[in-house]
Amino acid sequence: MLATLLLSFCAVQEPASWEQALADAAAAGATVTLRVADAAGADADDADFAAARARLEGAQGIELLFLVRFLGFSPEDPEAERLVTLVDAADPDLALAALSTLTRATGEEAHAIQSALGSRLLELDAAQAPEVWFEGHLVLFRIGDGVYRAAALRNLRSQLAVEEGTLQRRAALAIGRTGVVLDATETALLTEIAEGVGADAALAGALLDRIGDQERHRQKEESLLRYAQQLQEQTEQPTPGSLGALEDVLRMAEAAHMEAERFNRDELLEAAADGMLRRLDPYSDFMSSAEVAEFKFEMDPQYGGIGAYVNIVNGVFTIIRPMYSGPAYRAGLLSSDKVFEVDGWSTAEQPQDEVIRRLKGKPGTSVLLKVWRPGWNEPREIPVEREQIEVPVLEQEMLPGRVLYLELISFGAEAAPQIANAVSAALAEGPLSGVVLDLRNNPGGYLEAAVEIADVFLPRDRLVVTTKSRTQPEERHFTRRPAMVDESVPLVLLVNDLSASASEIVAGALGQHARAVLVGERTLGKGSVQQLLRIPGQPGDEPWQDVNRNRMRDEWETYTDVNDNGKHDYAPLLKLTIAYYYLPDGSSIHTLRDHDGRVVQAGGIEPNRVVKIPQLDYPTLRELDRLLGEDVFRTYALRLQEQNPALAVRIAEYDDRDLSLYPGWDDFYASLRTTLDPQELRRWVRRSVRALVSDSRGKVFPGNGFLGDFEEDPQLQEGIRLLLEKSGRGTADFPEYRILALAAEAPTGEAAAGATTDGGR
């Protein structure tokens, strides 16, 4: 045995011949071949090169690739052109390795290679061999002359028009890699890709950074040419005092800053005011006219329109989901429908805001949409009559075991009555095990709405919150009427690190009065009051005819354009922090910071039961990003819903994590060529199924993604366990909660991922 080891060791130490290197490369594959051939060529002598050249004439496949690299690729070598024959969809790895070598072709000698490669690429189908097709066109662009470069770029851009999202993404990335000036569609696609995770997102981000750097460099060169003249023209004398210093800074910035031409003086002054306020705290700011309009809508989301959530998806204006109480759904529009035209106006390559503007309008008027849906042979025209749309503030679902789940989306004026009505209606149908009120990701809203929601669950004269200000007397807010929901109905509140402001007031009041158990993660710690203040000397709102009396100017309402800028303007406002909130026990919600912004006193509310949401690791996120980009989950879900709608509903409601419920699962899983756990993929397929089933049942599943799904949401699961325990039952009493019962009993593994601890303030 020792002799064998010694012989093996000695064999490893001997330098391998180029023939041995070729044999090793052939066994290892195309990717390794390039590295092995380059290393062998660096150590070879003239005799080795002569022997290799003699063998080159009849070489094929990996052997041809190795020998060309070993001999040192040269475009004038007639054998180099033969590498083009390796660009074949049948062996993508070999094709990519050959393309990597062909990239070295330059100058006049490369013309034959350009011609051969261009012809070869015409034989390939982008959908059948995407990696080879896109990389091949990139190589052709890089080595080609004007004609070939133009043809390569034209072909790449042709893929932006296809419906298949993965090809569009690949096309955008490839075009970005060419270094050409991008148009708006290409930039938008790269921006969309960069917002994801994984290698494609990183590449898109790097390309956008490079493009931005190039544009800034160009602008700076132009600015430098005018710099001296601008300084010479500046003859004003400095203004004394601190405000004079601000004026001097503004003047110098306008004259010399590289980016000054992108901004007008009003924008810079607004930024100065905004910076001053944000120095005081993160929540005070200067609100421009556009920001005031957006704020008004967020606080009272009403408008005249078709009632749908929309976005640009792969360059096409898309209905993400219709509002199921709105006119779009009643007219037949469904999730993922593509809107090609609005009243004969094409939405192609148009800004999303402009399309939305055309969809909105006076209630009672009609808009004609040209819509396409997978499975249709051609687009269809669908008329939709606009209505006054109120964005839902509450979504609800009756979970197994008579657990009422309420997702509060915003603290609007109707939030408290809707919560009370939802609970009352549910109680009318029978006793409840309890109510889950989900305040996760809720940024807050009106203080009055928070007090009214506490009033739904607390008896009369219970302190909800106190506000303390420097300029106003202390205000103590109490419940004003008997509880609308009897205290015999158990209550769980779900919170997380994005539950803020009014969400924290409700959580703090109901928790400290022992009316609710808080489950989740520590809240944000935003316990301050902001007031909107008029700025003396600034013009007021431009007058408009408030037909629907929502105190907000809708697109269809007439107005007086006082400043002749072609749009309606609200007066700019100051949003100023004027008070802090204090919970019934006198504690502050607010996170306090020192002069340099460092936290000196942590705010927020610690739940009674701390439950973390497990985070996916980076390799899993990267692989999911690939699969989501290929749209595999939604494709499977669509097929399932079309072939077996009843099964789709069953899976959407709960699937017991049983893979055998999913038709053709093994073949589907094998087709993905992934190492991810099948259960992880099942979660994402089911998420797509739930979105599609929402259309068929005309009601959204509450929550956001996996949040709100009792099979996948550990915080909701803990809330359900607590409520069922209070009602004298448990998760084991309901077949839908079998997984929850098993997870609660498991000492390690899945239960550990959503482990709970008792918490407190």
Main sheet characteristics: 7 strands, mixed
Q: Average pLDDT, to the nearest integer?
A: 83
Kindly state the percentage of residues in helix.
Answer: 40-55%
CA radius of gyration: 32 Å
CATH class of the largest domain: Mainly Alpha
Structural class label: alpha+beta
CATH topology of the largest domain: Leucine-rich Repeat Variant
The CATH architecture category of the largest domain equals: Alpha Horseshoe
Q: How are strands sequenced across the largest beta sheet? A: 10-11-12-15-16-21-22
List segments where confidence is low: pLDDT < 50 over at least 5 consecutive residues: 1-16, 220-239, 747-757
Portion of residues in beta strands equals 5-15%
Number of domains in the coordinates?
A: 4
* Number of helices, where a helix is a run of at least 4 consecutive DSSP H or I residues: 28
Q: What is the overall silhouette?
A: globular
Total beta-strand segments: 22
Query: N- to C-terminal separation?
Result: 68 Å
What does it look like?
This protein is an alpha+beta fold. It folds into four domains: 12-211, Leucine-rich Repeat Variant, CATH 1.25.10; 302-390, Pdz3 Domain (Roll); 394-531 and 577-611, 2-enoyl-CoA Hydratase, Chain A, domain 1, CATH 3.90.226; 618-697, no CATH class. It is built from 28 helices and 22 strands. The chain has a seven-stranded mixed sheet, sandwiched between helices.
Topology:
Layout: H1 2-13, H2 18-28, H3 30-43, H4 46-56, H5 61-70, H6 92-102, H7 111-122, H8 130-143, H9 146-158, H10 165-178, H11 184-194, H12 199-233, H13 242-256, H14 265-280, E1 285-287, H15 289-299, E2 302-305, E3 308-313, E4 316-322, H16 327-330, E5 338-342, E6 345-346, H17 352-359, E7 366-372, E8 380-385, E9 387-390, E10 394-399, E11 403-408, H18 415-428, E12 434-438, H19 447-457, E13 463-469, E14 475-478, E15 491-495, H20 502-512, E16 517-520, E17 528-534, E18 573-582, E19 592-593, E20 599-601, E21 609-611, H21 618-629, H22 632-643, H23 645-653, H24 665-672, H25 678-697, H26 714-726, H27 738-745, H28 750-753, E22 756-758
Parallel strand pairs: 11-12, 12-15, 15-16, 16-21
Antiparallel strand pairs: 1-18, 2-9, 3-4, 5-6, 5-7, 7-8, 10-11, 13-14, 13-18, 17-18, 19-20, 21-22
